[in-house]
Design goal:
Strand order of the largest sheet: 2-1-3-4
Number of helices: 4
Helix content: 40-55%
Strand content: 15-25%
Distance between the termini: 49 Å
Number of strands: 4
Order of helices and strands: EHEHEHEH
Shape: globular
Structural class: alpha/beta
Radius of gyration: 14 Å
Largest sheet: 4 strands, parallel
Length: about 110
């Protein structure tokens, strides 16, 4: 089975995700904030990352940017876990995948 990093600061949500994945036979690593997610991703090299968009410290979007800029973590699939559903929120996630920050209008 897969090694999955769950980065979620809401305890009840994280507990539910970890419970389901563990019962399905996966090895689960848990991070409670963005900095911890980056650290654990680098040390554990998970097969998949479930990443909350809204966490204390670094947002999930910033974590995603950093993960995708790291040559050893760039290929790890990331699923954003979020209650956000506005188009601008989805766009923020997609822009986090870009290697360069988007150009700003003058």
């Amino acid at each position: 089975m897969a090694k999955i990093l769950v980065a979620e600061d809401e305890k009840q949500i994280a507990d539910m995700i970890v419970f389901k994945l563990t019962n399905a036979g996966h090895q689960v690593i848990r991070a409670e904030d963005g900095e911890q997610a980056i650290t654990l991703a680098g040390s554990e090299l998970p097969d998949l990352i479930l990443l909350d968009a809204m966490m204390p410290g670094l947002s999930g979007f910033e974590v995603l940017r950093r993960l995708k800029s790291d040559p050893t973590l760039r290929a790890v699939p990331v699923i954003m876990v979020t209650a956000k559903g506005h188009e601008r929120d989805v766009l923020s996630g997609l822009l986090a995948l870009r290697k360069e920050p988007p150009a700003t209008a003058s």
